[in-house]
Task: inverse folding
């Protein structure tokens, strides 16, 4: 499922226009991005938790030349599925 498929599902499920559904989906995504950018977690009960993990700087190797390269520290978004989501996915 891509973003347009999600917008269509939201529109039909909520009985609203696709443009309103697209605005709603974009608003949710933007709110999650903004919270993560500030360093806050986003907990959606029953769905899961979005968080930010810090990765330390490391030294890697260029696979072609074998010479060492520095990989800078960074922040990585993480998602941990909630119990209800895990159960829904594993339901037969």
Result:
């Amino acid at each position: 499922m891509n973003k347009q498929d999600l917008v269509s599902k939201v529109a039909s499920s909520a009985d609203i226009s696709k443009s309103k559904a697209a605005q709603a989906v974009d608003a949710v995504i933007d709110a999650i991005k903004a919270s993560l950018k500030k360093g806050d977690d986003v907990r959606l009960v029953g769905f899961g938790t979005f968080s930010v993990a810090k990765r330390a700087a490391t030294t890697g190797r260029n696979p072609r030349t074998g010479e060492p390269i520095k990989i800078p520290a960074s922040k990585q978004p993480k998602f941990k599925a909630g119990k209800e989501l895990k159960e829904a996915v594993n339901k037969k």
Summary: The chain has a mean pLDDT of 95. Residues 50 and 59 are 28 Å apart (CA to CA). Helices lie at 3-14, 18-38, 83-90. The beta strands are 42-44, 48-55, 58-61, 68-71, 74-81.
